[in-house]
């Protein structure tokens, strides 16, 4: 595996001893239902200097996703062994001042028909593109989500809040945003244009005028994916004296906010600097503060 | 490949000469976005005595799905070569009286990041379970779809009507139906409980009382997948003197229909014999008639 930047650890079947595999070789059967049906769940985590912060929140969300999809989950201990094995075999973590950073993605697939679900873990050094976007921010467009996902929340078979491998629409929204010259897509409901979430991240905005210190995010229990980064920022911000608030947020709220971020586990707090081609205010100081809430000790 | 029932033909990259591969071996990279993002499209077709009927309708829908997902499509000629190659290397087709039957599934995946989209084709003899269900029918439950997919139809980034690899919700609905003791799930809108489609098939019902001969299906342009089998049945039935009608259909309409079917390319017209635990009337004669519309000459 020398010279290979990323490390892949196989955990198949899910309770088997984690072991390194060579990702340059095909590893997946062509009738695996992770591939043919997008039938699986995943979590993306972040390691800083070899430590996965908020592992507990990720593991709990993985278990919640898997429970909805009726998939088994590797034990917490097995995940920790796999993470350790992956980290010690991946290339050195990218470092832009916070420490050595790795992306850790843990996935569970249904497996082939008649076969067994399996899990795998990929560890990759965080790269320059991620560091750049944290500094320079992103442009975003608002795209209708077609329906209010709150309508799904009582229906377990619609996998509400589960982080599944079926991300075709999220990927299509990102391609559409890029076709429009933007970097990111922020979904709104089609009916009342309420802000939901971005394609692969949560939305937070800040109001800081006239001595106010308020962070706002859309209500996370209403069918959107509960963001582990958003939750961590809010917990730390509250302790630091911020008022925190859970929507509703409308596009006008984003346009008059003092800062807007997309938050996710690896990119951390990425400032939105343009929304539907209108410039948004942003503050390196506030971004550093939110980043500190995420990865600080 | 001797002794292997199914044949798999690789078409990677999509314009490469189709060639047989061994599906017992891993063929897919672990970071393929078909797997990690459900990012791809597919069609399931049916061959009878070596001939794929309604190939044109499948190829057009594949092209429509791929256009929405910004994926390339193998040429029609390349698909025909691959189908021929697969059919001549798969086990003998199952035969329950119609002729030798094979399932043909053609899929296109985004491929690995920075790589190339690729396509593959699987040919499998139709088996006893499919023949059994055509005769004995299925029990179904009505499950809310959470929203009216008609709301998606103007938004290309939501991939309305595209048949993507992101089927996690469809599979979860089938599991939920089975947990409830049924075989199949029929989706309804959450707001007005209008019937939409089943997890992997279209819904058709017949009214035949008092000399009436009417077939009804939910309006196929309103965000549900346009069924190639439903379309073929309707075209032939109209020529055969049936009145055809496009919804709306409500659960009460299914309960008072003279027959209800789930139609799809390989299972053909499967009678629904119980709906939410209530028996539905069904008629082997009508099922044979619809099957004839599908596969007859």
Automatic annotation (TrEMBL), chains A, B:
<protein>
    <submittedName>
        <fullName>Aminodeoxychorismate lyase</fullName>
    </submittedName>
</protein>
<dbReference type="GO" id="GO:0016829">
    <property type="term" value="F:lyase activity"/>
</dbReference>
<dbReference type="InterPro" id="IPR043131">
    <property type="entry name" value="BCAT-like_N"/>
</dbReference>
<dbReference type="InterPro" id="IPR043132">
    <property type="entry name" value="BCAT-like_C"/>
</dbReference>
<dbReference type="InterPro" id="IPR001544">
    <property type="entry name" value="Aminotrans_IV"/>
</dbReference>
<dbReference type="Pfam" id="PF01063">
    <property type="entry name" value="Aminotran_4"/>
</dbReference>
<dbReference type="InterPro" id="IPR050571">
    <property type="entry name" value="Class-IV_PLP-Dep_Aminotrnsfr"/>
</dbReference>
<dbReference type="InterPro" id="IPR036038">
    <property type="entry name" value="Aminotransferase-like"/>
</dbReference>
<comment type="similarity">
    <text>Belongs to the class-IV pyridoxal-phosphate-dependent aminotransferase family.</text>
</comment>
<keyword id="KW-0456">Lyase</keyword>
């Amino acid at each position: 595996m020398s010279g290979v930047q990323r490390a892949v650890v196989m955990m198949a079947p899910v309770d088997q001893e984690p072991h390194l595999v060579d990702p340059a070789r095909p590893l997946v059967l062509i009738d695996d239902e992770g591939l043919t049906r997008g039938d699986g769940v995943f979590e993306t985590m972040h390691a800083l200097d070899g430590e996965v912060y908020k592992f507990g929140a990720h593991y709990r969300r993985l278990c919640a996703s898997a429970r909805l999809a009726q998939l088994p989950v590797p034990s917490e201990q097995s995940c920790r062994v796999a993470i350790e094995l992956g980290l010690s075999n991946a290339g050195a973590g990218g470092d832009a001042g916070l420490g050595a950073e790795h992306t850790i993605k843990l996935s569970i697939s249904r497996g082939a028909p008649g076969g067994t679900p399996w899990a795998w873990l990929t560890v990759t050094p965080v790269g320059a593109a991620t560091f750049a976007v944290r500094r320079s921010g992103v442009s975003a467009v608002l795209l209708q989500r077609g329906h209010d996902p709150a309508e799904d929340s009582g229906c377990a078979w619609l996998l509400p809040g589960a982080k599944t491998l079926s991300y075709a629409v999220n990927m299509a929204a990102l391609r559409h945003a890029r076709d429009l010259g933007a970097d990111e897509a922020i979904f709104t409901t089609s009916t009342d244009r309420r802000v939901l979430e971005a394609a692969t991240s949560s939305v937070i905005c800040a109001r800081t005028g006239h001595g106010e210190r308020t962070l706002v995010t859309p209500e996370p229990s209403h069918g959107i994916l509960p963001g582990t980064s958003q939750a961590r920022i809010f917990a730390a911000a509250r302790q630091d004296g911020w008022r925190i608030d859970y929507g509703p947020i409308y596009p006008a709220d984003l346009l008059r906010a003092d800062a807007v971020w997309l938050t996710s586990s690896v990119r951390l707090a990425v400032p939105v600097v343009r929304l539907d081609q209108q410039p948004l205010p942003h503050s390196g100081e506030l971004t550093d503060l939110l980043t500190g809430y995420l990865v600080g000790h």
